[in-house]
Structures are given as structure tokens and as C-alpha cells.
Amino acid sequence: MTPLTRWMKQGVEFMGRQWNLFDIASLGVVLSLHLLALLAPVHFSWSALWLAFALYFVTALGVTLGYHRSLAHRSFKLPRWLEYFFAYCGVLTLQGSPIEWVSTHRYHHQFTDTKKDPHSPLIGFWFSHIGWIFNNSFRFEIYERRLKNVDDLKRQPYYRFLHRTYLLHSALLGVLLYVIGGLPYLVWGMGVRMVIVYHITFSVNSIGHTWGKQVWHTGDLSRNNWLLALPTLGEGWHNNHHAFDYSARQGLEWWQIDITWYLIRFLQVVGLATDVKTPTETQKKRKALHNASSLEKNKSKVSNGKF
Q1: What is the pLDDT of residues 125-156, one digit of tens each?
Q2: What total of structural domains would you count in the chain?
Q3: Parallel, antiparallel, or unpaired for β 17-19 and 12-14?
Q4: What is the 3-state secondary structure (H, E, C) of the chain?
Q5: Which of 69, 80, 215, 254 is the most buried (most CB within 10 A)?
Q6: For residues 83 and 67, is the Cβ–Cβ distance under 8 A?
């Protein structure tokens, strides 16, 4: 093992734990984007604002529809070209390659709200929100689980390519935005848009397991939060999701706004989405939460490490 490899693996001591090169790089990227977003008031233009909004919608769908419901849970099938398109949109959120993101999320469902959960609320609200991003050893090494649950993606050259190069794509997008619209486009299209996408997405892990309503027996702390459902394009119906993680639809009631589902349903109507999975009425009855005390029981069991 070379000195560089050893340093990359062991890192340096900071805030009571070891930080390796990947932790430091992740922190640097996130801090840089937040600092870039602070320039927004002095580099405002209406075109830059609308650009940020459009990029937010498209790249957020890359996470919700592409990474999450399509790749992580295989809730429906898309033609390969369309699956790849949404996955690429997800790459532009700088939340990791499809392989890395899907692996982390599948482990989250396997170990939900336990100490093995990659972003467990048991470790703290801040950790479940964003602190886990800067602790790669915890996410991938402690439980010998580095990318071992995504063989379906690793078999495809396209996803291996994105895994090796995913930072490059956002860098190229930043260059393109600067060439087209100067600092306003860079600040709003990369800084502001990315910071919002980060915290909205991460809020599902933190707020979605802390505040809201639980209506299904899930054995965890997942919550439905209507306020979170709006900016996350439907991901805020998190207790619904943990009850029926295979479902392409997360807003299960007519009044539960789920923009991602509306697009999936449209794709289904035009014949582009097939094998679309949703829970049956029988499956819903089996998961229904019939008494309020069950939530307190779940909280007690989770806190005692029984789940």
C-alpha cells in the first residue's frame, strides 16, 4: 500500500473521527456549491431564475423517477434509452452515480432506522440529513457492503461509465452554463439549483423520518409529510413508500400530490412505461395502521434497536 493509498483510506482525525480523501472531497464540493449560491442576489436575472427552475425539475426527476422508482425499486420498466436519459439527469444532481445512489438506498430499506442504516436518524437529525454524505467509511465499509447489492446495474457498461465519470458531467454542465449565460447562469443553474436539490432530497431522509403522519405498519419511523411531498415531486409520502416500496405511485390517495407518479402514469398511457407496480386493496388492508399506539410502539422498538 502506497502512502497516498494509505492516506486515502485512513485520512485525518477531525471532529472525533477519521476523514478520508473522499469525505474531504465531498465536503469541498458541497461547501463550494453553497458558497456559489450565496452569490445569487448579485447575479440575478429572470432568465437565470427560469433556467434554475427548469434544471431543478428535470434533474430532480432524474432522482425521483430515474434513480429511485426506476432503478432502486424497479417499480416499472422503461425503454433502455429513456431509462438511461433519466439516470443521466440524476447524475447532474451530484448525489453520486446511479450505482452508488441505488446501492445506498437499497441498504437504507434493508436496515431502515437501525444503526446499519446509511443515514440512520438514530445517529442524529444532522447525520440523517447530510452528515452521512461526509462519512464514506460508514456508508460502504463498516458492514462490508460496498456496492454489493447492485449487480443489475454493474452488469451494464453505461452505468459503469457513469460511475467512473459522474463528476465530469456536472463540471461540463457548469462550463456550458457559464459559456451560455456567464456568472448568472452558473450561479443559479449550478449553485442555487444544486443547494435546493440537495436539501430537498436529503429532507426525505431526515424530516421524512421525524415529522408527519404514519398510516401504515412499516416497523420504522417513516412519515407522510404533505409539505415535503410538494418540492420532492411526491417523495414526501414516505410512510406510503416504506409500506409499499415496490410501488411506482407514492401518493396513494387522490389528494396526495405525486408529480413523479403523474409523469409515470403519462408514460404508461403512451406505452413507454410498462409493468407499472402499485399496491392492491388487499395489500393496503394488511398494512393499515389501526391504532395510534402502534406508532409509539414502533418508536420504542426502533430506539431499542429491535428493528
Answers
A1: 999 999 999 987 776 665 456 788 999 999 99
A2: 1
A3: antiparallel
A4: CCHHHHHHHHCEEECCEEECHHHHHHHHHHHHHHHHHCCHHHHCCHHHHHHHHHHHHHHHHHHHHHHHHHHHCCCCECCHHHHHHHHHHHHCCCCCCHHHHHHHHHHHHHCCCCCCCCCCHHHCHHHHHCHHHHCHHHHHCCCCCCCCCCHHHHCCHHHHHHHHHHHHHHHHHHHHHHHHHHHHHHHHHHHHHHHHHHHHHHHHHHHHHCCCECCECCCCCCCECHHHHCCCCCCCEHHHHHHCCCCCCCCCCCCCCCHHHHHHHHHHHCCCCECCCCCCHHHHHHHECCCCHHHHHHHHHHHCCCC
A5: 69
A6: no
- In angstroms, rounded to a whole number, what is the distance separating the alpha carbons of residues 264 and 65? 8
Range of the domain at 188: 17-303
> pLDDT band at 13, cuts 50/70/90?
low
Considering the domain boundaries, does residue 10 fall inside one? no
pTM of this prediction?
0.90
**CA–CA separation, 273 vs 4, rounded Å?**
47
| CA–CA distance, 198 with 177 (Å, rounded to integer) | 19
pLDDT at 174 over 80: yes
Q: How many Cβ atoms sit within 10 Å of the Cβ of residue 208?
A: 27
